[in-house]
Design brief:
This protein has about 350 residues and is of the alpha/beta class. The chain has helices at about 55, 135-145, 165-175, 185-195, 210-215, 230-235, 265-270, 285-300, 315-320, 320-325; strands at about 5-10, 25-30, 40-50, 80-85, 95-100, 105-110, 115, 155, 180-185, 200-205, 220-225, 240-245, 275, 305-310, 330-335. Bound molecules: NADP nicotinamide-adenine-dinucleotide phosphate. It holds the Pfam family ADH_N_2.
């Protein structure tokens, strides 16, 4: 493969106080001097995942991962193809891989930081950024380990038309729960009901939202992607022994100081449990979960939806705020490049 003379990467330029700003990131064009060493591989990025967690990565606070520093390449999960293998690398040119190389067109990665994609009929590489990646695994482990959802229970999912939410809805239905979805538009609610088969979807921007939710009665499990006022309201809708899965709090990610909860005493009266989790804590159990989720994809019982942003890596910081304004339905990804010649798989 002929090498370019330069490549692009997106670095953190400044820390936003609230919403991500046009100058939060900047593009750097750097000379191409990447060469894999022993046990390393040079990867060409083909797809990037855009995730709400990125707002947290650029906040200078203690969290489950260190903050991205000013001037550093922005952290991001990607898919790509090995274009050169270093001496003794377990990867070969053309292998399809995933890894957290960040918002960059090319990266040299240590073998141990790359995963070779397992592809089978009915599985596309891009599924590893959605059903078989963080989103699917988060929905799977959130429901299983924290929600302990059982057949016949009532599950409510917020952020339901997003990547994690849409999978939580489908896994909940597959498990025999009654699933109520909450999303931010009529179109999203229609998609959730007609395509994903939830029992009913509610538009939280409707003036009758609170009254509408009250009509469904009380819930056993709440899969919370949103936090804030939505969580506060749903804490008033708990059955006895309810479980609240604190997956995310997107409504608060841009806030300087998130609001506190008013309704938490319902946790006491209803003997309810509320627990946060980080999906990567279950990494040792990923292979079994991916095998199960793959079967769902192959049989068609799990449906995937992508919101694809074309136009290369420079679109990544422009598209990222879409997650906070509700512009996406399904998994938000950026197409960074076409697969280089020699790649073993086609999309
Ligand atoms: N705990 C973990 O390990 C883990 C792992 C992955 C993701 N997460 C969390 O899971 C959640 C979903 O992530 P995702 O990747 O699937 O993103 P996503 O749901 O695909 O995209 C975000 C969606 O959130 C909704 N939203 C944005 N601002 C909102 C607000 N103020 N109130 C209500 N809804 C709002 C928007 O849809 P609407 O049109 O419906 O508003 C938007 O489309 C995030 O909170 C994320 O941080 C947690």
């Amino acid at each position: 493969m002929s090498r370019p003379t330069q490549y692009k990467r997106i670095v953190l330029n400044s820390r936003p106080e609230a919403d991500i700003q046009p100058d939060t990131f900047r593009t750097e064009v750097v000379p191409f001097n990447l060469k894999p060493d022993k046990g390393e591989a040079l990867v060409q990025c083909t797809w990037l995942s855009l995730d709400p967690a990125m707002r947290g990565y650029i906040r200078d606070v203690r969290s489950y991962l260190p903050p991205v520093q000013i001037g550093e390449t922005m952290r991001a999960l990607g898919l790509g193809v090995v274009v050169e293998a270093g001496p003794g690398s377990k990867f070969k040119v053309g292998d399809y891989v995933s890894g957290t190389w960040g918002m960059t067109e090319y990266a040299v990665m240590k073998d141990k930081h790359l995963d070779r994609l397992v592809l089978a009929p009915g599985i596309e590489p891009i599924d590893y950024l959605n059903v078989l990646g963080t989103s699917g695994l988060t929905a799977y482990f959130g429901l299983k380990k924290i929600g302990e959802l059982k057949a016949g229970e009532v599950l409510v999912v917020s952020g339901a038309a997003g990547s994690v939410g849409a999978l939580a809805c489908q896994l909940g239905k597959a498990q025999g729960a009654t699933v109520y979805a909450i999303a931010g538009s009529k179109d999203k609610c229609e998609w959730l009901e007609k395509e994903l088969g939830v029992d009913k979807a509610f538009n939280y921007k409707s003036s009758t939202f609170h009254a509408d939710i009250k009509k469904i009665g009380y819930l056993d499990v709440y899969f919370d992607n949103v936090g804030g006022d939505m969580l506060d309201f749903l804490l008033t809708r708990l059955k006895k022994d309810a479980r609240i899965i604190l997956c995310g709090a997107i409504s608060a990610y841009n806030a300087t100081k998130p609001k506190g909860l008013q309704s938490y005493m319902n946790l006491i009266s209803q003997r309810a449990k509320i627990q946060g989790f980080i999906v990567m804590d279950y990494a040792s159990e990923y292979p079994a979960a991916i095998a199960e989720l793959s079967k769902g994809l192959q049989s068609g019982t799990i449906k995937r939806k992508f919101h694809i942003v074309q136009g290369g890596i420079e679109q990544a910081p422009i598209a990222l705020p879409m997650l906070f304004s509700g512009g996406n339905t399904g998994k938000l990804v950026v197409k960074v490049s076409e697969e280089p010649r020699g790649a073993k798989v086609k999309l």
